[in-house]
């Protein structure tokens, strides 16, 4: 680097640049969280049942194999749109599908990827289904590209 | 080694390497489960093995960063560590908490673990990379705060160098951002948004400060280049890291609920994120070309060059490949993401920790000019085996990812293959990735072997030109 470019100039770019972008990031975060998200994340339908479903999702580490809105592991299918893919976007159909699916696990087919049985009650499976249905309705800029996730 | 208390870095490095070995074993298990789906089922289901693999990585890197800090801060500050005893206590607390958590993952059903650690009181578990029980998260916070106290007291009473200031800034950032791991609202979209405050702002933010500071320290030591020059570079690199990386967080906000302006912000700023990594490459190679001494620890020099190149490829190039929103729309959450994650973590953070280990451990073992030639040759074999294997792991995962996107994401609904049908089609790539992983393990064994090779330590160095005060 040219001699005219001194260490204190470099330090000022670092301090000024990072301070500016931290503040900009905070401003954008306020805008995203306070103005934009309430219109996009479907929060008026965020019931206690959905929250219970989220905790079940977490306490069984579902994200250790599946992805949800593209985040998680890539070992098992995306589930943010499973309500549309397997439930045909119908609450009752999806609930029955979920009960049948969760109780059929594991398949024990030799050599195939196995999903454990988490021994959830019917009520818990309905909570989980409610959580996945709610998640499918978040405005996520039309991701994923198709129904397969 | 100028200060006796630097020696407390040793247990941190040793424990980090032990956990590293565990991480690779579980990586192999995961790689096999991708193709032999029921391997170790139901004893170790995929989600458990993955949690162990990623959490071991995070914890051993933290051990590595702490070891690096204990080693270099006293020497930079030109004073003994504030409290070596506290450093030892924290080592045992952190090692015990980490081991117990991993054993908990392996031997207790996850829902039961959540139950017995009273996750309901403050639910934080079950989110990717933040699977640790809440009590472990609190433990990490306590250990890091006490560690920062010890380090800050040391730095404050001595010489204030840029390396120390940047390193401690990075560590304080790490601690502050960790607090977001305790925020887990019932709204998944909000949860995800702030989850990235830990995950992205760690690895594409404050960890780059830590990496930059360690690299700068090692380069000062190995090349004897004037500290003023190195510190100027360090400031420019970390400035670029934060200027691009903070708003670059936006590349994670494309498809999880936040508004559309993030598509632009995230794309533009994250497209610039390779810059700091590119500058690290130029930095390392320029300093080495201008070196004023030929340090006999050639292995450490190789790691220092290697980490910049691999970080640039893994974090920079492989990150850029899928960071633009129109591309990411198709690649998000595919094996492309996995390819990028593997090479970026290895290049930037695994290799920087191995760099400081390669430099500092021989000194702590009474070999100030590095290990014997034979030991260094073996270590460099380990370097090449692991690094080339990681290149192949990344290439095979990229191949798998491209095919996955082609089969599962690009066709219209109705024509696209389902997830599992697609996975069957790309199994060959997973097999090749597994083989590359086995070579990585072999490289790790060779690397470990280099620590046990005796022989005469390297003789004193040859100085090129006048030595500087720091040399």
Description:
The complex is a heterodimer of chains A (149) and B (471). Chain A has 149 residues and is an all-alpha fold. Chain A has helices spanning 7-40, 48-59, 82-85, 91-104, 122-136; strands at residues 67-68, 71-72. In chain A, helix 2 (48-59) crosses helix 5 (122-136) and helix 4 (91-104) crosses helix 5 (122-136). With 471 residues, chain B is mainly alpha-helical. Residues 467-471 of chain B have low confidence and may be disordered. The chains are: A mainly alpha (149), B mainly alpha (471). The interface between A and B is large, with 73 and 82 residues.
Question: What is the gist of this entry?
Answer:
The complex is a heterodimer of chains A (149) and B (471). With 149 residues, chain A is mainly α.
Number of strands of chain A: 2
Helical content of chain B, roughly? Answer: over 70%
**Terminal Cα separation of chain A, in Å?**
48 Å
Q: Kindly state the mean pLDDT of chain A as a whole number?
A: 97
Radius of gyration of chain A: 22 Å
Assign a percent range to the helix content of chain A. Answer: 40-55%
Q: What are the main properties of this structure?
A:
heterodimer; A: 149 residues; mainly alpha; two-stranded antiparallel ribbon; 53% helix; 3% strand; elongated; B: 471 residues; 16 helices; disordered C terminus
How would the blueprint of this fold be written?
The complex is a heterodimer of chains A (149) and B (471).
Chain A: H1 7-40, H2 48-59, E1 67-68, E2 71-72, H3 82-85, H4 91-104, H5 122-136
Helix pairs in contact in A: 2-5, 4-5
Chain B: H1 9-33, H2 46-77, H3 84-107, H4 110-116, H5 134-157, H6 162-178, H7 188-223, H8 227-248, H9 261-271, H10 274-289, E1 293-294, H11 298-321, H12 325-331, H13 335-364, H14 373-409, H15 419-425, H16 427-450, E2 462-463
Antiparallel strand pairs in B: 1-2
Subcellular location (chain B): Membrane
Membrane topology (chain B): Multi-pass membrane protein
Protein name (chain B): Cbb3-type cytochrome c oxidase subunit I
